[in-house]
């Protein structure tokens, strides 16, 4: 019994690290996983890695294949396009309702989240999106939606936002020098706080679609 707590702690730590690496695409989509090699890389035991991968399979970030082990969930243009259209629709609805219901406390959350995001570096030393930026970016979008009175809509938004994370990471790694992300987020914040719903929904759609378009062009070029 005394050893149970450390074991659970190691599994949780391993899960959190693998999840961050998956969302940032440090573990490439579609790649088969060698559990032993991965355990050595994250300095964990094989049992902790297997349990973490099983949890990640439930989140559809990893695929558990009978008799074959685990594989990182692949990406595709078709999935990206479908995910983009649904995310714009759901997030736009949450944002509209959030603006309509938002009070001074909501305004303060949006301002604080934007301030934090604007002070975090986007790129990590490996050239991919940093975990710190991912956390701040998620917090900013969550703050924008946070006054939406529908818990179900917010849960759906969170699910779609997370599923989009790997596509975002790949797109931003390509376009980091070509986009003014700080400016895009500032415009979203200002339109939301001014309660200009038509403007903020237009900005949100463009913000998401631009991320998608960059990656679609890249994936199609690789396929040619």
Give the distance, in angstroms, between the N- and C-terminal Cα atoms: 57 Å
The dominant shape is globular
Helix content: over 70%
- Determine the strand fraction and express it as a percent band: under 5%
- Here the CATH topology of the largest domain equals Four Helix Bundle (Hemerythrin (Met), subunit A)
Number of domains: 2
| Total count of strands | 3
Reported CATH architecture of the largest domain: Up-down Bundle
How would you describe what is shown here?
A hairpin with a 3-residue loop joins strand 2 and strand 3. It contains 9 helices and 3 strands, in the order H-E-H-H-E-E-H-H-H-H-H-H. The longest helix is centred in the C-terminal third of the chain and has 27 residues, at 197-223. The protein is mostly helical and 224 residues long. The protein is globular, with a radius of gyration of 19 Å. It has helices at 4-23, 35-41, 46-58, 77-101, 104-118, 131-145, 151-175, 181-193, 197-223; strands at residues 32-33, 62-65, 69-72. Helices cover 71% and strands 4% of the residues. The protein has 2 domains: 4-72, Winged helix-like DNA-binding domain superfamily/Winged helix DNA-binding domain (Arc Repressor Mutant, subunit A, Orthogonal Bundle); 77-223, GntR ligand-binding domain-like (Four Helix Bundle (Hemerythrin (Met), subunit A)). Residues 1-7 have low confidence and may be disordered.
């Amino acid at each position: 019994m005394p050893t149970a707590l450390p074991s659970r702690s190691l599994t949780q730590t391993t899960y959190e690290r693998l999840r961050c690496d998956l969302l940032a695409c440090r573990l490439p989509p579609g790649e088969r996983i060698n559990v032993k090699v991965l355990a050595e890389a994250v300095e964990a035991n094989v049992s902790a890695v297997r349990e973490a991968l099983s949890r990640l399979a439930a989140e559809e970030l990893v695929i558990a294949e009978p008799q074959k082990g685990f594989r990182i969930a692949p990406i595709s243009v078709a999935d990206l396009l479908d995910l983009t259209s649904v995310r714009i629709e759901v997030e736009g609805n949450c944002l509209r309702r959030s603006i309509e219901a938002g009070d001074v406390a909501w305004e303060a959350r949006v301002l604080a989240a934007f301030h934090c995001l604007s002070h975090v570096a986007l790129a990590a030393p490996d050239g991919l999106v940093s975990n710190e930026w991912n956390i701040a970016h998620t917090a900013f979008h969550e703050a924008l939606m946070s006054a939406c009175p529908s818990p179900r809509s917010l849960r759906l938004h969170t699910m779609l936002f997370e599923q989009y994370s790997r596509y975002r990471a790949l797109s931003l790694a390509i376009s980091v020098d070509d986009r003014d992300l700080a400016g895009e987020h500032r415009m979203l914040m200002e339109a939301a706080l001014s309660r200009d719903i038509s403007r903020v929904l237009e900005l949100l759609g463009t913000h998401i679609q631009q991320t998608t378009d960059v990656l679609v062009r890249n994936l199609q070029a690789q396929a040619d």
